[in-house]
Structure of Putative competence-damage inducible protein:
Amino acid sequence: MSYTAEILGVGTELLLGNIANTDAQMISEGLSALGINVYFHTVVGDNPPRLKSAVDIARSRADIIITTGGLGPTCDDLTKQVLAEAFGKKLIFHEPTAERIRSYFKNSIRTNNMTENNLQQAMLPEGCEIFENAWGTAPGCAFESGGKHVLMLPGPPMECRSMFINCAIPYLRRLSSEAIVSRAIRIFGIGESAVEDKLRDMMVSMSNPTLAPYAKEGEVMLRVTAKADNEELAVAMMEPVIARVRDIIGDRIYGIDVDTLENTVFDLLKEQQMTVATAESCTGGLLAKRLTDIPGSSAVFKGSVVAYASEIKNQVLGVPKTILEEHGAVSRPVAIAMAASVRRMMGADLAVAITGVAGPAKDERDNPVGTVFVALSAGGRHWCRALHLGADRSRIRIMSANHALDMIRRYLTGVEILPE
Amino acid sequence: MSYTAEILGVGTELLLGNIANTDAQMISEGLSALGINVYFHTVVGDNPPRLKSAVDIARSRADIIITTGGLGPTCDDLTKQVLAEAFGKKLIFHEPTAERIRSYFKNSIRTNNMTENNLQQAMLPEGCEIFENAWGTAPGCAFESGGKHVLMLPGPPMECRSMFINCAIPYLRRLSSEAIVSRAIRIFGIGESAVEDKLRDMMVSMSNPTLAPYAKEGEVMLRVTAKADNEELAVAMMEPVIARVRDIIGDRIYGIDVDTLENTVFDLLKEQQMTVATAESCTGGLLAKRLTDIPGSSAVFKGSVVAYASEIKNQVLGVPKTILEEHGAVSRPVAIAMAASVRRMMGADLAVAITGVAGPAKDERDNPVGTVFVALSAGGRHWCRALHLGADRSRIRIMSANHALDMIRRYLTGVEILPE
């Protein structure tokens, strides 16, 4: 059977607009990979009658209710109480959880001490399965009642994510005798509609596994999902589908079940013990920022020169004035010179450089907004892409960085660096 | 009277987890500034019966329904049809809107041509107020029916935001004979609970205007909201409150009704015709990235050296080896030397430098994760903050950049650079 789930975000801060409901996004993505249909998200404040009314609506239209938030130690945190009462479950003191909370406070350097309120978190619905919290004190839990499944997760995104992956997904997998397995094929360098065009016949003719494309920021994700009696079988069923997608999309696939383009590049660099440096103009440090978002990036990333003002390209990066004057700062020769120079300066194995017009106005040579050159310098050679990325500043910057990462990825995997 | 609103996000991509519901966050923040209570958010897919059921629930518990999404030209986009039918309104062809759509296609460089579907967007509920779309073809609209107000906005965040600000807010303001005005006091350098402690007596004793603190990422926002017969009066009522908050919080207030810390710094630099450069280690380009997020930043930002590997601090920034060896890369003398050096290299009026341990591990000198030094070099002098920012990598990086921006802001406004 196919389950439906509703995600119920609990927290007044969501209704005030202090934060976006990223928990619901993360959980939805996970449920879609499990083949569970999500038809509604609801957000409600820390208000018991309104929370109760939202729970009543959710149970009338979904098999599984997943709450996020309201599990903390303050008197506002009432999710457990309201949900337990709604489903006729008592809250019972759970000594092992209390012990875990006590030792959490004993072992961590915290300015605030444990209060009796913290032990309230050890009150849990009778007969529930307890989800341990790897990042905080609030445990989550799950129970079944009258054919409905209730899962409660904490609100802080780090806690919610880790508990969802480590506890909720295994719980949900056990609901079904079928194994549903899904894989994510990550693609850069071709738009969603072009991917759809190429794969339409294949997608339409398939029912198990299924194949569906999703547009991500500047890239495309293809989700393959298979149902079978067991996991091995489901995994095996996906193999020929993935092989066929590889044939059709080719080296624009940068990874399967990987995180991001920058993580893929990081892994490749680390594997090959190579280092990288960047020289950035219009991206203004965004590429370096993305590479250093990754814990452990110091093993592969040397540094960057952000040469935002034109004269810095000469004064700091040493791009010859003659080249800058002849071709302008936004040009192929300048991008190549920037890459070669930053590679030398930083003593890196390879380097990328980005120079372009992110707007709001054309540059002094009348290059329209969106004109960008991305160069790679490696192994004594160089390559350069000339791009036209539209008029949106933020998109121009993200896509420019994506292209730089894609060129590194292609170099390190030995596929054509300038396709088409 | 005080209105309640429900925000109804329409779009299957939200339920699949492809995007977060940032429209609901943006609108919630705006409604809270208008004194309109938001008790629920709902997200539903592009499915007419389920959308209809969500509309029925929303109308039973809110005075105002604001939908986002589902106004596009594809056959999936059914928000207008479902809402109009639910409230007994016919859809009527609106020639001026059709003309606007035709000319949009005529005047813009697009690869896709206008189709008959695009003209579907000119079908609008009878008697509605039309909201023009500054960024796309889909118009929004608002109507009243049976005491309920329905507002429909497009889903893409840029279109939604601009239509909400330019069309929906004025519509909502007119619903009330009272003027509700609100101002945002932006604070950096003191936590939310400390702000609450200092202002508690004041907050508790006030009912109009009201004063409420909100935690933002690494900073605090105080919202002052006043109701009065007219806007002038409401604005005047807030003056003494703002003055008193200024007395209590002092120069930790970095702006009122401003965007972000980096925008505040950008405005100050531009006003004073000063330029800035940055040298970054653990932030890895994040500060440069944030400064160059701002269109027009080239007027004030020269560039940055991201010296992520230790040797780059010497080889590129010229920090003497003796200093690096004696004090270690994460130290006050190195931060100061980095700032002074990048200021000279880039010919900037002022420079900031950040060096620290963002984790995952301690550095080789046993500095714990979260140890960060932020230095400012300006006018032949220098200042340095020593910070301990906890263990979360992302927070360490954001807070380090915030501190650097705060030091620049303090220098340019002539207040103490190292308070406390």
Q: What stands out?
A: Residues 4-175 of chain A form a domain with the Molybdenum Cofactor Biosythetic Enzyme; Chain A fold (CATH 3.40.980.10).
